């Protein structure tokens, strides 16, 4: 029987990148310690702040919500949950009930915003329009741009000081590699544990940034946290290719993902010289902040004759 390298109890997890085995108690303590370390090291939340956590219902976002709920209670902060309903039939409707159940368990308010009410169409409908018009864009492109915009709008209208996302180590390293491949210095420079505050944008934080995806999943399982395990039907494209490449790299060379993250963090201060300075203005259609005359959401939606309302329609408030 394999034993935990820290306490001698029965081991349940092999942390290959560190060469150690951990029991259930030690892996739980380790994940919580890394979460607290990130919160303190990067000063992600200050006492008394109102914080929103973006929750999809998956293992990462629900786990992040549970960890933040405990942290905010100790730091005298207010935590609320926000879910974006893209309108993916058979996927988002199932995960939404999981979010509500966890929000009720933690006694925090939950708000929902939808593509249909705000943009005039669901992602399913947009995907069909894109296919019909042969735009050549993957549904993930529309979803990513529109989700980010909608989350920022909702967070701003709900009056929060910070917006937390559940990006884990795997997500962050994938984003780093994707932006390397695309030579997108602006997006690359914006990656990090927290986004700086800019007019019109609610600062974002990533408390799980230094925790591997597998350890987040193990933590949720061991803590008995109810999560939605479905896979988005639109997942694919270059994001999947980069994910598979990095997973194979990690399998063959444990600790590769941490090394990529560490190297990026050391390089980031030097990227500022490659990022052009730009001033924000209001999108001429929706009024959201943008670096050009039209924001990316409106640019994508214009081809389909869809528009973006100035205010999001926030619903589903519950405790």
| DSSP summary, beta strand count | 10
The CATH superfamily turns out to be: HUPs
Average pLDDT taken over every residue: 92
CATH class annotation: Alpha Beta
Strand order in the largest sheet: 7-6-3-4-5-10
Provide the low-confidence segments as ranges. none
What value does the Rg take, in angstroms? 20 Å
> Any idea what the shape is?
globular
Largest sheet: 6 strands, mixed
Overall CATH architecture: 3-Layer(aba) Sandwich
CATH topology: Rossmann fold
Derived from helix and strand composition plus strand pairing, the structural class reads alpha/beta
Task: Tell me the helix content.
Answer: 40-55%
The total tally of domains equals: 1
- Beta strand %: 5-15%
Strand and helix map with partners:
Elements: E1 13-15, E2 20-22, H1 24-41, E3 50-54, H2 59-74, E4 78-85, H3 92-106, E5 109-114, H4 115-119, H5 123-133, H6 139-157, E6 162-164, H7 169-181, H8 185-190, E7 204-205, H9 213-223, H10 238-252, H11 256-271, E8 281-282, E9 289-290, H12 296-302, E10 314-318
Parallel strand pairs: 3-4, 3-6, 4-5, 6-7
Antiparallel strand pairs: 1-2, 5-10, 8-9
Helix pairs in contact: 1-9, 2-3, 2-9, 7-10, 7-11
């Amino acid at each position: 029987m394999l034993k935990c390298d820290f306490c001698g109890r029965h081991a349940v997890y092999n942390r290959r990148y560190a060469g150690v085995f951990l029991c259930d108690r030690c892996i739980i303590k380790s994940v919580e310690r890394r979460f607290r370390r990130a919160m303190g090291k990067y000063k992600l939340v200050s006492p008394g702040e109102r914080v929103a956590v973006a929750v999809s219902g998956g293992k990462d976002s629900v786990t992040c919500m549970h960890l933040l709920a405990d942290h905010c209670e100790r730091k005298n902060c207010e935590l609320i949950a926000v879910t974006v309903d893209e309108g993916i039939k058979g996927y988002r409707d199932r995960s939404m009930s999981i979010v509500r159940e966890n929000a009720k368990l933690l006694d925090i308010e939950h708000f929902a915003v939808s593509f249909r009410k705000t943009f005039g169409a669901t992602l399913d409908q947009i995907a069909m329009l894109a296919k019909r018009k042969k735009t050549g864009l993957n549904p993930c492109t529309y979803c990513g741009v529109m989700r980010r915009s909608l989350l920022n709008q909702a967070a701003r209208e709900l009056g929060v000081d910070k917006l937390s996302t559940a990006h884990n180590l795997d997500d962050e390293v994938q984003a780093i590699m994707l932006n390397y491949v695309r030579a997108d210095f602006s997006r690359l420079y914006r990656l990090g544990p927290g986004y700086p505050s800019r007019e019109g944008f609610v600062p974002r934080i990533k408390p799980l940034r230094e925790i591997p995806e597998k350890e987040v999943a193990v933590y949720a399982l061991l803590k008995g946290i109810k999560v939605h395990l479905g896979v988005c039907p639109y997942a694919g494209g270059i994001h999947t290719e980069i994910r598979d490449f990095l997973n194979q790299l990690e399998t063959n060379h444990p600790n590769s993902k941490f090394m990529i993250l560490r190297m990026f963090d050391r390089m980031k201060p030097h990227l500022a010289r490659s990022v052009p300075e730009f001033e924000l203005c209001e999108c001429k259609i929706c009024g959201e902040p943008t670096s050009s005359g039209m924001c990316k959401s409106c640019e994508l939606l214009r081809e389909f004759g869809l528009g973006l309302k100035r205010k999001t329609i926030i619903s589903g408030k519950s405790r």
